[in-house]
Write a structure and sequence with these properties.
By secondary structure, the protein is of the alpha+beta class. Helix content is 53%, strand content 11%. Helix 4 packs antiparallel against helix 14.
């Protein structure tokens, strides 16, 4: 068996149930990390994962919908390889990821330290000395220059609070943001904050306030292209087991 694929230990990838699409996503992050827009939250560095850029970079994957990538990132988060966070502002909703120790464990031993040092350099998008002016030309083109909660205007903060401040649990808030992003992609967004609250209360009811059950419900609805969620039946395996990501892609591609 070949030892490494794109600098990732193949045996460890197999043990984590990763396939080539997953590895290409991890490789994309590794290769483009210094040039990715960044933000700091909870003392962790997050980088913007540009879905369109990834699709254009790997046409061989034949990915046509961004929800396919979103589902893959959720899988990597469940495996503990990355952390995923949605950031919303007046320009839209953007997916940011942060690398965990498990990510670096997947790298081959010969380059693990080298790559980890590279990520620890904390290069910011507008450091012209390190970036060679790359972002000087890209500033006006990128939908997000750099997003940090401290730089978001008061007006945007008020709007965010009106929408999701009622969600106290951070995991549920991230999951709700994923669902709102999906609803926007299928052009079926909620018309009011009240509608979002009704949906959230329904999700809590169906999941019995269990975040893992709620995540399975959301993933199942997204995978099947549903506009809403459905109360799981106790004898229905779809909600009692981890989602089959290979099967999900049959619906979203």
């Amino acid at each position: 068996m070949k030892y490494s694929i794109y600098d990732f230990n193949q045996q460890k990838c197999v043990e984590n149930d990763l396939d080539m699409t997953d590895i290409l996503i991890l490789s994309y992050i590794k290769n483009f990390y210094p040039r990715m827009n960044k933000m700091i939250e909870d003392d962790k560095e997050y980088v913007w994962f540009n879905y369109g850029s990834f699709i254009n970079e790997y046409p061989i994957l034949k990915i046509k919908k961004t929800i396919t990538i979103s589902t893959r990132l959720l899988k990597l988060q469940e495996k503990g390889i990355i952390l995923k966070k949605c950031v919303r502002n007046e320009k839209g909703t953007f997916s940011y990821v942060s690398l965990t120790e498990k990510y670096f464990e997947l790298l081959t031993d010969t380059i693990e330290n080298e790559n980890k040092n590279q990520f620890d350099e904390n290069i910011t998008p507008f450091d012209e000395n390190k970036m060679g002016g790359f972002y000087e030309n890209k500033r006006q083109k990128d939908p997000v220059t750099i997003i940090n909660q401290s730089t978001i205007s008061k007006k945007e903060n008020i709007k965010e609070k009106e929408n999701l401040d009622f969600v106290e649990n951070e995991d549920f808030k991230n999951l709700l943001e994923e669902w709102l992003e999906y609803k926007k992609e299928i052009k079926n967004s909620y018309k009011s904050s009240k509608s979002i609250k009704v949906f959230y209360n329904t999700l809590l009811k169906y999941s019995n306030n269990d975040i893992e059950k709620a995540r399975e419900i959301i993933n199942f609805s997204i995978a099947n292209g549903y506009k809403g969620i459905f109360e799981p039946k106790q004898n229905k395996k779809s909600y009692n087991n981890k989602p089959n990501y290979a099967e999900l892609e049959k619906y979203v591609l």
